[in-house]
Amino acid sequence: MTLSQLVEWAKNKDRFQTIDDYSAFCEEYLSFIFDGLQAVIVSQNENHYHFFQYREDGNFNVSRPINSNLLISVEDFQLAKQEFGYVMQHVREIKEEPRLRDLINKFIYTCQQMIGVTLDALPAGESNKARKINGDLFERYIRLILCDIGIPVHDGVVSVPVIVDNEELFKMSYQHDIIVEESGEVRAIGSVKTSSKDRIDKIFIDKFLYNRLTNKTTPHFAVFLNDVQRKGREPRFGVNTTFLTGHFKGYTVKLNPLDGVYYCDLRPNMLTDNILSSQIRSLDALLIEDIWRFIE
């Protein structure tokens, strides 16, 4: 399959309706990069991040950073796909199996990032459109995965009544990426973004306002793919973090902590900083443990 065919596929959100649709696209793209790239560039400051450079058919563009420690190769993809299907059917039974927990993060990361790097081949004038498509598809992917493991989720608007002196004065509407709802009751609310850049503040404030207005303690959680971006000039590309450590810690300590924050690609300080490591986990933790706690 050519790069132009892959780009047209990635741009068409109607072609991503099931988990298998994401897997099918990913496998085609992994086959393409085997001999379809101009170069693979290694990050100067964090060597496990790589950048794909396209040939003329991709405007010689350089992609977003790809974590080679999480990327599944085309040779290993079929087996990973089979194992991921097994994991989705037995997700509550693999708590003590580190290899399968790791597979969850690698498989979701690989499938989603291959959509993102494909869209990186678009001309510069279409970059905003590409970001919107990529973000929408990641939100859908996480919803599909949650539904597949048996969690009743949807996106949409939640209307919250504002009551003063026992009288409803008006309603406030909140748009959410994930609404976990059972028997008409909202059990948890989630935000899904490819990165936290320019978005982290709103997630904390949404929890504060929603629970204050409803007089409830509805869990709010966030799912992010990664928090790195390309920096520098060719050929000396490196990576920068887009995670706002101070904002995250400030809101956690002084406003309200979120009930879960999950990444496929964790930044190093998320593992070493006491506050961050107590609040942020890899995505497998949401599927195996925490989402069930939210609804029980």
In short:
With 296 residues, this protein is an alpha/beta fold. It has helices at 3-11, 19-33, 74-89, 98-119, 127-148, 200-214, 245-254, 269-272, 274-279, 283-295; strands at residues 39-42, 49-53, 66-67, 153-164, 167-182, 185-193, 220-224, 228-233, 236-241, 260-263, 280-282.
Low-confidence stretches: none
Spatial separation of the terminal alpha carbons: 46 Å
Question: What does the main sheet amount to?
Answer: 6 strands, mixed
Look at the helices and sheets and give the structural class.
alpha/beta
Strand content: 15-25%
Tally of contiguous helical segments: 10
How would you sum up the global shape?
A: globular
Instruction: Tell me the number of strands.
Output: 11
Number of domains: 2
Strand order of the largest sheet: 4-5-6-7-10-11
Q: Helix amount, in percent?
A: 40-55%
